[in-house]
Amino acid sequence: MAIIVHKYGGTSVGTPEKIKNVARRVKQVREGGDDVVVIVSAMGHTTDELIDLMNKVTDYPDPREYDMLVSTGEQVSAALLAMALQAMGCPAISLTGGQAGVVTEDIYKKARIKHIHLDRVKAEIKQGRAVVITGFQGIDSKGDIITIGRGGSDTSAVAIAAALQAKVCDIYTDVDGVYTTDPRIVSDARKLEHISYEEMLELASLGAQVLHPRSVECASLYDIVIHLRSSTKDIPGTLIMSAKAIAKQGGSKMEKKEAVRGIALDENIAKVGILKVPDKPGIAAKLFGALASESINVDMIVQSIHSKGAMADMAFTVDKPDLKKAVQAVEKVAKELKAEGTLSDADVCKVSLVGIGMVSQPGTAAKMFDSLSREKINIQMISTSEIKVSCVIKKEQGKKAVQILHKAFGLA
Q: Distance of alpha carbon 165 from its chain centroid, rounded?
């Protein structure tokens, strides 16, 4: 008998009928002789609706109360699924992240999981119950409810799978696998049979919304295979695993030759800049230290030097929800440094190519830039690594850029 870990996203539990469908699937696994631990997200757009309610009350919510509010969405899903299982004759119990033993850092909204004490979960399994756990949350050292960032239910699922020493974590969602790009943007996007942790982590970090980046990071750390699959179709999905494991399973020769495995589009970014600051040691540390103190993650960074005088402009990208705080922090630093001014632009997006094969196939970036220039798409910022190339462009040109690049690199 094995312990199977399932995770169901918001669309998979979005209605009472969908919750019943999930319950039937869980019951079927239980009848096959395995124990099941289920991690659930909030129903449908519940979290967005809760945040909308919050915004009608205050423009500057207290972080503790924010976590207290948005954590309720997962509790509704977990309780309803446990009830649905019980109604079908399958013993079940719902637990919050804290009740399940998920302990986080003392950081509201974006905490990392420190450790998981599964005594309660194991005791419930021993009693013959299916255990349904709220994703996205845990408790801190004070016992406060803490959330681990939007999409954090994926991370909860993988972390719990690792703690239970499960070999596979099945993540069920409204898509049936990882595609070369978003099928809603490119109709002939191709589903991948396998993808490496490194490639999936880049795609997830760069805007592909099928998995939370930290869930992939956690899976890689503990060598947990993630099976991303459809909650409505009983078909194989995409296996996310180590490149070594893929090689052992005999990943297709065609896939091995591809320099680019996937294309991601991130429309949830904004650009911030500070103009004409002294070009000397310590300036960048002061600027990005101020952003770090506000828990603002910075992605792409560009610094340009003026031809006259030791002055420089700096520009960087942040997540769009952090734009207001980022601008406030930058304006404060600009005033201290007597900079010429600041700028911000929320009307941008980031398009990225990802693939381990880029290391051995030069010219990928040049081909990307040439393909975009032919369509008169201007590149504002560029960032590269061994397995990815990212460009910031106007938001209105994002989907067109993905379509152009998908065709240019033969990913259909």
A: 23
Are residues 225 and 207 in contact, defined by beta-carbon separation less than 8 angstroms? no
Give the pair of three-digit tokens for residue 157: 């699922």
Ramachandran angles phi, psi of 315, nearest 5°: -135, 150
State how far Cα 321 lies from the chain centre: 15
Q: pLDDT by residue (tens digit) across 333-392?
A: 999 888 888 999 999 999 999 998 887 788 999 999 999 999 999 999 999 988 999 999
Q: What is the CATH number of the domain that holds 382?
A: 3.30.2130.10
- Judge whether 283 and 337 are in contact, CB under 8 Å: yes
The Cα 80–Cα 73 span in angstroms is 11
The amino acid at 372: L
Q: Specify the DSSP element, H or E, that contains 370.
A: helix 364-374
Report the chain's C-alpha Rg in angstroms: 23
Residue 39 in contact with residue 26, Cβ under 8 Å? Answer: no
Q: What is the pTM of this model?
A: 0.83
Domain boundary at 342, 361, 386, which?
342
Q: How many domains does the chain have?
A: 3
